[in-house]
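Minimal example, chain plus zinc ion.
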Amino acid sequence: METGRFILYTLIIIVGCNIFGFFLSIMSLHTNLFTKYRIQKRKMKANVFYTRLPLILFNILLLVLISSLGLYYLYPIIFSNLLELNFDVILMQLIIILLIDDFYFFLLHYWMHKNKFILDRIHRIHHRAITPLALDYMYVHPLEWILGYFGPFFALFLISLFTPVNILAFWSYQFIRNMHELDVHSGYKSFLSKWIPFWGESEHHDLHHAKLNGNYATTFLIWDNIFKTKIR
Ligand SMILES: [Zn+2]
Ligand SMILES: [Zn+2]
């Protein structure tokens, strides 16, 4: 697959997930659909969300630019340029990317809470959302998600030392990670997460927003169990 096409399809996944996240946020602000599945009783004010939207959109635009530029240079180095439907390889690489990315994110997130300077100057922005909406996952200081974005690329580099990264494993990662972020910030109880062992459900991250300290893990819950940072 040529580089331009690879980047275009990756951007369709990223932008598509964010458009879905936008409509999910609008739905929870302006309708009473699924109200009974809301985690917190507190209702989010629409005007507060709209004042956050410029930073959210700026971050998404920056994400598109950085992803395009990064993948343009990395594609020939770390990816297989063939679309191979090899399920064992896809699943194995997907799990490795998710695990390394998530462990890196847990450490970064934990550090952002323990370092008061970083907490007040950078991470506090994300915590203005006490009752988050789906798209609030991008209501962060740009430096925060840029630092976080190194996680999957550590994993991709590591895999590429042994074998080229399968494009479908990378796309699956992008889709799952984006949709999971929307899920854990949606304010609604998770449905599917309960059936996947160690998978982070929205109640877990929503409690992190409500209480500030504890529950630093997002994709996998194991890190909070190992480092004893779990709250209920
Ligand atoms: Zn936090
Ligand atoms: Zn959050």
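The pocket of zinc ion (ligand 2) is lined by residues 126, 132, 137, 185, 205, 209 (CB under 6 Å). The chain has a mean pLDDT of 92.
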